[in-house]
Amino acid sequence: MTAALPPEQHAPEAQRARRLLRLSWVLALLVLAVMWGGVIEGLRQRQSLLSAQQQTQQAEWLRLSSAAVDDRLRNLDKELQLFADDQPSLARDATQLFPLQGGSLWLVDDKQQQQRRGQARALSEAAVQQVRQWLNSPAVHPALTLLPLPVLDKRPGNSELLQVVLPLCDQERCHSALTGFLRVGELLDPEQLVDHPAYAILDINGSVLASNGSMDFNGQNLTRVATTRLGQVPLLLAANYHSSQIIRSFNLFALSLLGVALVLSCLLLLLMWRISQILQHVEHSSSQFDHAQQLLALTNSSLRDKMRTLIDEQRDQQTLIETVQVGVLIVDAGDLSILTSNDAAARMLGMSRQMLQRQTLPVLFHARQRCDELLLALQEQQIVTDREAQLNNHNHKICWSMTSMRYLQFRERHAIAVSLIDITERFAHAQRLQDEKQATERALAQLQATQHELYQRATLDDLTGLANRRHFLSFAGKALERARLANDTVAVAVIDLDHFKNINDRYGHAAGDAALQHFADNLRVALPDSAMAGRMGGEEFALLLPDTSLGEAHAIVDVLRNGIAAQCFHTDGQQLQLTFSAGVAASRNGHAHDLSELLKLADKALYRAKANGRNCVESIAP
């Protein structure tokens, strides 16, 4: 054994170790300071670069957003012109007045207000007075104008609303105006609002007319946001746009840089900790050596004493088994006879402990095959945990158990420990839940069938089975919007059955209904799958032909006309023949994607077909 160094030799080594440790800590702190200084400078430069990129993207966002606002205001101006006249029209019925709030529109003059469109409600007095004051001001001009919401109407949630005014002027003055309300966010395309920019509509002087509430726009902080002039109205669009992609890029760079710096810092601190551990090891090496000597001093006699203690503890296992609340059986691994059990197992099986110890394990299972499965799994895995099994209760009650098995040595015999947890109530509850689930699924299926029937009644014409007027206009409007985005061509046709009133007057309304059904059946057979037909009212029908040019649409409708004219149908012993007149119009790529405009053109072509003697198809280009 190596002799221990005297204390006088240990002291200089310990002092040198302590001095080296202090020097190491100074160098480590210096390295950390330099490294974190570089990290801060790198983040600052990266932030400057991304700020410049952010300004470029903000300018591009303003350009695209102002174009979208001008486009939607231009379309709104065209649609509002349809309501300048009191006479209704099919084109005005198809107008959605998007993005007016609720599609509501009022006509205001010096004496009264009159609602032209939307759910019936009165225009607020503040809004009426604002329109009348504007009509009497010298700044009025016959063009679409956006005014701020009246002060009395600026309740919470209305900060983004603007009042739209279109004056109706003659040669002398503007005596009345159409007005409604729109939300600034509706003027922008949804993809332009993905990054939740702060935006506002300002007048030429920089006063805020409306904003989305994300930023306090005023004359003092307009220098920190970007603005652009709108072309449709003399207003400014201001925005503070933050690209989520740039923010994520900066966050990823910052996290990566900070992560590397943290890892290096941790490694350096770990190294310093290891050096401290080495010093402590040097100081305590003598005590650790003495402790090892004491462990080696244990004799064989003490080990035998501990083994006897373990044997005594094993004999006390029966007492422990009897105290637990889980049912426990100790079974002989050879003949599967029950060696002992506790009171919990006896209560679960409805037997006394003496009666239970005269049984074998398979007898306790309701199905012998289930017992064999668990014993086979025990032989393969050496332990079985939480397996469901139905047991035989001596009182003829249903008893379900969560069963576990494992091998052990019991009284110097190879045995199996079986634990039983009563789950009868849990099993019954699960069955009740399953029954309730099936009942709920049946109710949901019935509800879905009812909803489908209601949808059919709301969207289809009861007599012909075609789309009703409201559903056709809604579907056609959405189809035209998709065509505008995809730069596709869409055709529409307006059809009117010739002399239909004569059929009703001469043969009765039953014959008229049969004629409408006959015509609808031919429509469904003759039209392509992508087309949609709708009954607009009486004997008037409309067709929507997506991705179809004007010539193709004319040919399709003409083939349908020839097929109808060549057929006869019978009703109440009468043989009748139908003809129709039709007008066709189609949009050009990128232009005239407006349903009211297309239907107005198709109406003109229909009147031309009637003037040419009926039973013909006329088309008109936008």
Automatic annotation (TrEMBL):
Q: Which Pfam families does this UniProt record tie to the protein?
A: GGDEF (PF00990), PAS (PF00989)
Q: What class of enzyme is it?
A: transferase
Membrane-spanning residues: 20-40, 252-273
| Stored NCBIfam families | GGDEF (TIGR00254), sensory_box (TIGR00229)
Q: Which InterPro entries match?
A: Diguanylate_Cyclase, GGDEF_dom, Nucleotide_cyclase, PAS, PAS-like_dom_sf, PAS_fold, Rev_trsase/Diguanyl_cyclase
Query: Could you tell me which residue ranges the PAS domain spans?
Result: 313-356
Sorted keywords for this record are: Coiled coil, Membrane, Transmembrane, Transmembrane helix
| Residue ranges of domain GGDEF in the record | 488-622
The protein's Enzyme Commission number: 2.7.7.65
Q: Which PANTHER family match?
A: DIGUANYLATE CYCLASE DGCM-RELATED, REGULATORY COMPONENTS OF SENSORY TRANSDUCTION SYSTEM
Q: Which SUPFAM superfamilies does UniProt cross-reference here?
A: Nucleotide cyclase, PYP-like sensor domain (PAS domain)
Please write the reaction equations for the catalytic activity of this protein: 2 GTP = 3',3'-c-di-GMP + 2 diphosphate
List each coiled-coil range. 430-457
Q: How is this protein named in the record?
A: diguanylate cyclase
